[in-house]
């Protein structure tokens, strides 16, 4: 009986672990038309390409591509993570994202068994 309870406990914990969802990018269905339009125009720079006196950093942002379980057919990709950056930048009212760096991670980040995390700085370009 004790062995049965232990096996049942392990099964329940395994099911709970698999059901925990990973971090995702904002749901594009929830975006206003203005925010969607802005996201489509956001430029993403993987490096420093705008003179410092020409912009203002308005926030640090993250985008992710996440495979939540080993059984998922999803393939993580950098473009999905970068699109997450664009959406979050648009939500902040940014014009671009600079200093973008992406990293592949295995298990352990945001309950993903595989992920690509991209980070960057959302900026507003100063008007002259």
Protein model, in words:
This protein has a single domain, classed as Hypothetical protein apc22750. Chain B (Translation Initiation Factor IF3, 2-Layer Sandwich), CATH 3.30.110.70. The chain is 33% helix and 29% strand. It is built from three helices and four strands; from the N terminus they run ααββαββ. It has a four-stranded mixed β-sheet with strand order 1-3-4-2. Helix 2 (33-41) crosses helix 3 (78-92). The protein starts with a helix and ends with a strand. The model is unreliable at 7-21 (pLDDT under 50).
Structural class: alpha+beta
Helix content: 25-40%
CATH superfamily: Hypothetical protein apc22750. Chain B
What's the level 1 CATH class? Answer: Alpha Beta
Number of discrete helical segments:
3
What fraction strand?
A: 25-35%
C-alpha geometry:
elongated
Short summary of the structure?
The protein has one domain (22-125): Hypothetical protein apc22750. Chain B (Translation Initiation Factor IF3), CATH 3.30.110. Helices cover 33% and strands 29% of the residues.
Name the descriptors:
Translation Initiation Factor IF3, about 130 residues, alpha+beta, 4-stranded mixed β-sheet, about 30% strand
């Amino acid at each position: 009986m004790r062995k049965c309870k232990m096996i049942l406990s392990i099964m329940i914990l395994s099911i709970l672990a698999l059901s925990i969802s990973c971090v995702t990018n904002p749901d594009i269905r929830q975006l206003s038309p203005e925010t969607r339009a802005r996201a489509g125009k956001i430029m993403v720079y993987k490096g420093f390409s705008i003179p410092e006196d020409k912009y203002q950093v308005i926030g640090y942002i993250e985008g992710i591509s996440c495979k939540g379980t080993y059984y998922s057919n999803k393939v993580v990709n950098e473009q999905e993570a970068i699109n997450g950056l664009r959406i979050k930048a648009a939500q902040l009212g940014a014009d671009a994202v600079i200093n973008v760096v992406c990293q592949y991670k295995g298990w352990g980040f945001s309950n993903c068994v595989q992920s690509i995390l991209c980070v960057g700085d959302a900026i507003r370009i100063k008007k002259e």
